[in-house]
Amino acid sequence: xxxxxxxxxxxxxxxxxxxxxxxxxxxxxxxxxxxxxxxxxxxxxxxxxxxxxxxxxxxxxxxxxxxxxxxxxxxxxxxxxxxxxxxxxxxxxxxxxxxxxxxxxxxxxxxxxxxxxxxxxxxxxxxxxxxxxxxxxxxxxxxxxxxxxxxxxxxxxxxxxxxxxxxxxxxxxxxxxxxxxxxxxxxxxxxxxxxxxxxxxxxxxxxxxxxxxxxxxxxxxxxxxxxxxxxxxxxxxxxxxxxxxxxxxxxxxxxxxxxxxxxxxxxxxxxxxxx
Length: 275
Description:
275 residues; alpha/beta; nine-stranded mixed sheet; two-stranded antiparallel sheet; globular; disordered C terminus
């Protein structure tokens, strides 16, 4: 098991820091999640025009900040003046790694230009065991793996997820064949986990067969983004290994009622008064 995944019980991820009244992907949101007991935090990265790596979801500043413009077309000196929700600065990924030394970060790499700065940030901070990189681009994930090597945890790309889904639907026909068997669905998988929605374009992705197929290959299954307690319970019943949520209070309560909430108080921070 990669050290990133070495944690008791289902992994609880605070998606973009979670929604407890603080702007998404802000230092305040992540601090609130850590104070609630979260030690797995999900964020996104883009690179500015001058190659500075920021923890930010959108391609443009417009939706969530008081400034406008594409992040990739603006220098860091301009982006740093933007305020998320009108109040919170756009953090660097390195700021988050430093502020929460006990936390682990699931990082969605949003653009090809962010690949180099992301790997360099992980290398410079020594955060190899604390970061898992995911994304919706097979090419970006391939570039991350090529630059970082096997020491870095990554999730499956879209094509790998599709192949895993086909494998799960094939069921008994492939059971017992090794991951490198050379069969149509059996080529090795490069990641350590499948991070997927319950459904994609109306088609179910996560069911018991999908979870079992992943587990047979040594892969964890993390599902995003789930805030309804009934759905969270159903997914846990299927045996998923992690859930990403905006309503991190709801996810914590459901895990607590099942006796599988593990307080991540070791993901401490020196900011915002978090323990």
